[in-house]
Amino acid sequence: MFKKVLVANRGEIATRIIRALKELEIKSVAIYSVEDRDSLFVKKADEAYMVGTGPLDGYLNIQHIVDLALKVGAEAIHPGYGFLSENPAFAETCEKRGIKFIGPPSNVIRLLGDKIEARKLARKVGIPVVPGTDEPVKNVNEALSFAKEFGYPVMIKAAAGGGGRGLRVVSNDEELREQFENAQNEARKFFKDDRIFLEKYIENPHHIEFQILADRYGNVIHLLERDCSIQRRHQKVIEIAPSLILTPQIREEMGEKAKELARAVGYENAGTVEFLVDKDLNYYFIEMNTRIQVEHPVTEMVTGIDLVKQQILIADGVPLTIKQEEVDFRGYAIEIRINGEDPKNNFAPSSGVVTRYYSPGGIGVRIDGTIYRGFKVSPYYDSMLSKLIVCAPTWGEAVSRARRALSEYMISGIKTNIPFALNIVKHPDFRAGRFDTSFIDSHPELMDYTEYKDPADIVAAISVAIAAYEGI
Q1: pLDDT averaged over the chain?
Q2: I need a surface site. Which of 77, 143, 232, 459 has the fewest CB within 10 A?
């Protein structure tokens, strides 16, 4: 078993990994930028080292991270999600320098990280794909020809990366001409790769993903599915497990296809095969993520399997002991991403000092977070503050629990999406399971809420105003 592991990430996922390492009795090493020096994950790690003053100096510096791991005697590096987690150069550097990368091999990351090549692989193993271009689109004229053949709407997608970057949905020639270059520029900025391809846009689908675990001995299982359809600007807001729409037959078929894809590339460790499912339950492969997902807790809550521990054990060479027939659902789980943002201002990020923090609790409630009263939310990183996960025996009970937990959750000092999320789980369509990827856009009434006003903040504002008046 590993004796020491370096966590090459920050925030709630760094805390999550450190907790798993503690339970496995493995020493944890945290890295942090100067902005994160007071974060909980830094305090919880056995060792912590500052690696820079920003993401480029710290969390994205491959050589510095690997050098540090070797210097402190870490045998492995867990990349978490985001940052370098799907960077094949990072995994390759670890391989060359004798550090175990807790994830798939670098050649697998490189192959699956190219969405065009991943589409070809999926088609090769018999998985349906969304109709699209088989090669990068060189110019807007090629894009217009595709749109003419397949009809609008179409989706412009970056060949590399994810998270909604380099992605545009267009409905006519004018929009395609306008957005083609914008998508290229965004892909070049975020992924240093401006290759673009096009897909026919599947209107109002469900976004369904299957969790995979695979060891180095050829054992592959899936841990059933998650529905990640509640999205804004192609970024997930709420995820659930299991899906409310899949039949047992379709579930089994999609799970087996996901395993076939993993076997075809010699996959190792945790991964996620993502699909779009239309109203007729036709499913289409879209991509495979080669890392732990933000939404992994809902799978843990309904299966009882600790995914992060499994990642560490697989990387250490321990064979999978879980059999496919042993994997089953235990009720329903819902994850809500709690973000520092202002939904009423186009979801603009909100940063500042957290002046008051009360998290919910009780049976079936889990918080994966890293903030506290007095914590300074930085404007330099992702806006997610924590994840609220609830579980219950039935879907109706899970929704009621999510509503109760959100109503207890209080964060002051910055704006958050808590009241917006509360409106979602209170909505009768959500409770009835009537939602797809268009849910937020088609329900503008979700923005109709009154923000909580902390009396302490009001008193502070009055005090400032009085002081300013007396100084006149």
Answers
A1: 93
A2: 459
CATH architecture of the domain 4-102 equals: 3-Layer(aba) Sandwich (3.40)
Q: What is the DSSP string of 60-81?
A: T-HHHHHHHHHHHT-SEEE--S
Taking residues 395-422, report their average pLDDT.
98
pTM, full prediction: 0.91
Q: Domain locations in the chain?
A: 4-102, 131-200, 206-447
Candidates 168, 291, 366, 403; catalytic one:
291
In the predicted structure, residue 189 carries a pLDDT above the cut 90: no
- Is 291 a catalytic site residue? yes
Provide the b/e sequence for 236-247 (b: ≥16 CB within 10 Å): bbbbbbbbebbe
CATH level 2 (architecture), domain 206-447: 2-Layer Sandwich (3.30)
Tokens standing for residue 74: 């870490």
pLDDT digits (tens, 9 = 90+) for 198-221: 999 998 999 999 999 999 999 999
CATH homologous superfamily of 131-200: ATP-grasp fold, A domain (3.30.1490.20)
Query: For residues 429 and 446, what is the distance between their CA atoms, to the nearest angstrom?
Result: 12
The pairing of beta strand 348-349 with beta strand 365-369: unpaired
DSSP 132: B
Query: How many CB atoms within 10 Å of residue 380?
Result: 12
CB 353 within 8 A of CB 374: yes
The whole-angstrom separation of Cα 235 and Cα 437 is 10
Which tens digit of pLDDT belongs to each residue from 76-132?
999 999 999 999 999 999 999 999 999 999 999 999 999 899 999 999 999 999 999
